[in-house]
From TrEMBL:
Cellular-component GO terms for this entry: ciliary basal body
Keywords linked to the UniProt accession: ATP-binding, Ligase, Nucleotide-binding
InterPro entries registered for this protein in UniProt: TTL/TTLL_fam
Name recorded for this polypeptide: Tubulin--tyrosine ligase-like protein 9
Family: Belongs to the tubulin--tyrosine ligase family.
Listed GO MF terms: ATP binding; tubulin binding; tubulin-glutamic acid ligase activity
């Protein structure tokens, strides 16, 4: 997105505070898209290269190469956990989920463990090839999808029905690597092979998946926030199982769809989660949609819990995850993958404004300026969904003379009245401060 794009008017509004104590917050960023606009719009000061910073929006390469040798003062913040890949590498995520499912079954029984059945059957290749072949034979005729573990944006992905198709791939893959490296012992690139969801929920005959944003500010205790807004990404071409080689039908990545000959950047191929929520409620009723959303909450929480114990919990770190979720024709949500660097590049003005709101609220939660009490359950478009346990909203109680009932504090796809909420929040924080200092 070009930096000349119109900046949303709420950036730099008066409720902003841009200092730590008396000093302006100094930031560094590896990206020059929406995040740079938001950081600047906040009145923070950009620093370059080796200069000292308070806040760094870094890339995962920096985490791998520099983080371990880098000293950070207490107040500094950075946007990744050191071993974020435990959840965001496709093969590791599935390994960790499988392990966690077994543990839940041992400790809490089959029913609870069945809540973890939200990822399609998956194997790592080449290491689990034999296990995959056994499963393949048990499900002859099924469709499978191959995905390289270290690529993104739909790159290197293909679908197949016959085992022969991957024997050919294996040979091809060995051959091309031999040619490249002239070393016939070089292993093939690691892939995952996964059951293809053949019955996706379709709208207008087209397949889509959902991008949902979850912010983790601590793993021990686990503290996770769910953003109200997100979007559905549609494919450009009507769904069909006749042409399994057509990526415009089967891969919903914007990076893939925008290369389609009839792609229109202004129209785009996205719906907001609010639009989708309303569409689904109109078709299936509120109960069915709430049941689906509850299952999505389970996906976020169980996937975070499955890596909680192995994450290096550093108080300087937070992570903004981009979840890829698909719905099948029975409205069951499936976890496709979790991204550590969800795209912050905007595909049009609407998308730009959404990403600015998301990032602005991410900075509000991270709270470099020290304005919050730490007890907030809602900050702008973020709702606290897990705080060492489920976060609930109390309803009923004294006012309506009934016993209180508890519902989860998640509002995915609900109206995001963040500006109003932020104004109220910061006003009440200021009032509380005044009364304690008087
Ligand atoms: N198991 C699956 N069943 C159906 N479609 C899938 C499946 N896995 C991936 N896809 C489609 O392929 C796209 C890209 O897959 P994903 O795992 O997100 O890889 P990438 O890292 O390249 O984005 C998804 O957005 C979805 O549209
Ligand atoms: Mg993806």
């Amino acid at each position: 997105m070009s930096r000349t794009q119109k900046q949303p008017s709420y950036l730099g509004r008066p409720i902003q505070k841009k200092t730590i104590g008396d000093r302006v917050v100094r930031f560094r960023t590896a990206l020059s898209n929406t995040i740079l606009d938001v950081l600047k719009g906040r009145g923070w000061q950009e620093v370059q290269g080796d200069m000292e910073w308070d806040f760094y929006w870094c890339d995962v390469g920096w985490m791998r190469e520099v983080f371990d040798h880098f000293y950070m003062e207490e107040h500094c913040r950075i946007n990744h956990f050191r071993n974020h890949y435990e959840l965001t590498r496709k093969n590791l995520m599935v390994k960790n989920l499988k392990k966690f499912r077994k543990q839940v079954e041992r400790e809490q029984g089959k029913l609870e463990a069945s809540k973890c059945d939200f990822f399609p059957t998956t194997f790592e290749l080449p290491s689990e090839y034999h296990m995959f072949v056994e499963e393949f034979k048990r499900n002859l005729g099924s469709l499978w999808i191959m995905k390289p573990i270290a690529k993104a944006q739909g790159k290197g992905i293909f679908l197949f029905r016959k085992l022969k198709d991957i024997t050919d791939w294996k040979k091809e893959s060995y051959k091309s690597q031999e040619e490249r490296r002239n070393d016939d012992k070089e292993p093939v690139e690691t892939y995952i092979v996964q059951k293809y969801i053949e019955n996706p929920y379709l709208i207008g005959g087209k397949k889509f998946d959902l991008r949902v944003y979850v912010l983790v500010t601590s793993y021990i205790p686990l503290k996770a926030w769910l953003y109200r807004e997100g979007f559905a990404r549609f494919s450009n071409t009507r769904y069909s199982l006749d042409s399994i080689d057509d990526t415009y039908i089967h891969l919903t990545n914007v990076a893939v769809q925008k290369t389609a000959p009839d792609y229109d950047p202004e129209k785009g191929c996205k719906w907001s989660l609010n639009q989708l929520r309303q569409y689904l409620i109109a078709r299936h009723g509120i109960e069915a949609v709430e049941d689906m959303l509850k299952k999505m909450d389970d996906i976020f929480i169980y996937s975070l819990l499955c890596v909680q114990k192995i994450m290096i919990n550093d108080k300087h770190c937070f992570e903004l995850y981009g979840y890829d979720i698909m719905l099948d024709d029975k409205l069951k949500p499936w976890l496709i993958e979790t991204n550590a660097s969800p795209s912050l590049t905007a595909s049009n003005q609407e998308d730009y404004e959404l990403k600015c709101r998301l990032l602005e609220d991410t900075l509000n939660v991270v709270d470099m300026e020290g304005r919050l009490t730490g007890k907030e359950k809602r900050i702008g478009g973020y709702d606290l969904m897990w705080n060492d346990g489920p976060v609930t909203l109390e309803e009923g109680g004294l006012d309506c003379m009934s016993a209180p009932t508890y519902t989860t504090n998640t509002h995915l796809g609900c109206f995001n009245d963040r500006e109003k909420q932020l104004k109220q929040l910061f006003r009440s924080l200021q009032m509380a401060k005044k009364t304690t200092t008087v």
